[in-house]
Amino acid sequence: MVTKADPEKKRKKSQVPFRLNVLFLVVFFLFSVLILRLGVLQIVNGEEKRLESEAVEEVIARKEAPRGKLLDSNFREVVGNEPFFSLTYTKTVDTKAKDTMRIAEWLADRLGVTEDQIKKITERDKKDYFIAKQDVTKMIEERLSKKEKKLSDKDQYVALVNKITDEEIKSLTDKDIKILAYKRAMDTGYAYSAQRIKTNLNNEEVSVISENLGDLPGVDIMADSKRIYPYGSSTIFGQVKQIPKSKTDYFMSMGYDRSDQVGVSGLEDQYENVLRGTKEKSVYLTNPKTGATIGEPKTIPGQRGKDIVLTLDMELQFQLEKILEEEILRAKPLGGNDLLDSAYIVMMNPKTGEIKGIAGKKYEDGEFSNDAYGALFDAYEMGSTVKGATVLTGLQQGLIHMGEVIVDKPFTKNKMNKSSWRTMGPITDLQALMMSSNVYMFNIMDRMIGPEHWTQTYAKARYSFNQYGLGVKTGIDFPNEAIGYEGKPPEGESGTLYDLGIGQFDTYTTMQLVQYVSTIANDGYRVKPHLVREIREPATDDKSHGKLLKRFEPEILNKIDVEQKYIERVQDGFWQVMHGSKGTAKGYFDDPAKYHNPAGKTGTAQRIIRHPRTGNIVEKHNLTLVGYAPFENPEIAFAVVVPEGTPQNGNQKINKYIGQRALEAYWNLKEKYGENAATVTGNLEKDSEDDSAE
């Protein structure tokens, strides 16, 4: 039997396919939209999005490495590093102010602060901190006028700072000040620049910080160092300080950070690029758009700076300083001399230019201070020591001939009357040097005057002196050496030309004086003086020397245009000064075992000055001495300068006493190389004659 289908069932059955079709259609549409979107991203914007997703920027944070050491010529450490730990903080561009405040509070609570940290806090710092503790939005609403609220954010903040009262500043507690000390140091630094916020951490502080570094982002402990001087400090070594503001741009262009320590004077400055270490680098990956830091930084270790081996012998240096002090004290009581308060000496190898010792001493208020700088920067009238250059100029220009006799008697010209320290009668060029005749030099300078303008005669004489290093830079490896002062003669006045020939017009430094006598000792070759002998890689231990990178060889600056026989003539004259029967230094350097047959020249420059305390007009003498030894094959030259001595009671022998003791000290140390030489004390020779003036 056939039954008729239920109409309701038939209707429901027909709706199922329709709904499935609609569902399939919707799904298909959604998939189409998704595929279309993916296509747009991959095909149209794919390259742009890929570059955006892969874009990273390297930002490098640097930490200073220890500087190189300075060693003397026997590899004794004279400037080194004392290690200590510093607390540093490195900000990133996404560092928040609240994070800095939290860390500052943590550090202040556990480490405390030093007086030095407190002293750096300014009134503005306190106002900024007071604002940081408040609800800034509320403060702006309550304290700023309608006009001020329309200002830029920066100007609004300035207006807000100006409204902080003294009472509010005083409300800051001791704890606030401690927190501020750290916050101030942390805010001072630049992004990705490790900023020292506390130095000389003790062991307990290092331990506390180390255990909590994970909770202190940006905080680190850095191995740091400061300069130490095992043999005492010297102005020659120089100083290391934070970059001076006047040189910030220069050092920043050289890759330094603002917080870096640099050499600001002396050899530390001269050899900054050598002594500077290679910094430890922390490489951060950041998103250039958001500034967010990606992952942990990669650390590249640094390296200590290169070591410098000096030409100086510290044992000789010590003895030179001691000699200067003792001779100054011995000379001062003679005649109540209260102005003789300084002395200088430089000892140099005339053939290589190596400075073996450079010392200066000043006496003030009963105490001595080191003033080696004075040998490079203080210029004086040097007196008769320059007569060697005058005689050579006369011989070179044909103004005199070897052995020429000139009568030493009062020199009168154009109403001018000049003379030597005593009348000597007929003398040769050799005798003029031996006895230090002024009149012989006056005649040489007088014969130099020609038809040209008088200023050209001065220029001609000075050019000749320049060839020996007088009045020009010596070329020493030291910043900003002085060149002395050229006297300015009155219009039409020739009298000072004669003074130039006896060393009483232009001024020179002790370094120029030693280069001058070295040029004569070295047969006319002027050698560049230098304080550094070698540059080496850092040593791996205290018992070895680092790899040699550079050795400074002798550098000849010029050869004077003088015949060898003339140079030898002046050399003979210098020998007569110290060994001739009437030499001005006769009896001081005769012992060959002590002094090794030296030659040289004494000098006295008379000056009339006003006493700085009494106001009285007094006569003062600059006492000088140059020399070299041995005469036959010189290996050491020296220059002694004692400015403003009193010409009374024999104290002007101080230049000879210093020269005696310095030479003996040098030869003793050479004989006992590597050993502790005995201290040289006392006068090494008995007074042989007064020779009180030249």
TrEMBL record:
One of its GO terms (biological process) is cell division. Keywords: Cell cycle, Cell division, Cell membrane, Cell shape, Cell wall biogenesis/degradation, Membrane, Peptidoglycan synthesis, Transmembrane, Transmembrane helix. Pfam families: PBP_dimer, Transpeptidase. Its main location: membrane. It is found in: Cell membrane; Membrane. Residues 63-287 form the Penicillin-binding protein dimerisation domain. It is a single-pass membrane protein. The keyword Cell membrane applies. The chain crosses the membrane at residues 20-40. The keyword Cell membrane applies. Residues 344-662 form the Penicillin-binding protein transpeptidase domain. It comes from the Bacteria. InterPro entries: Beta-lactam/transpept, Beta-lactam/transpept-like, PBP_dimer, PBP_dimer_sf, PCN-bd_Tpept. Belongs to the transpeptidase family. This is Cell division protein FtsI/penicillin-binding protein 2. It comes from Fictibacillus halophilus.
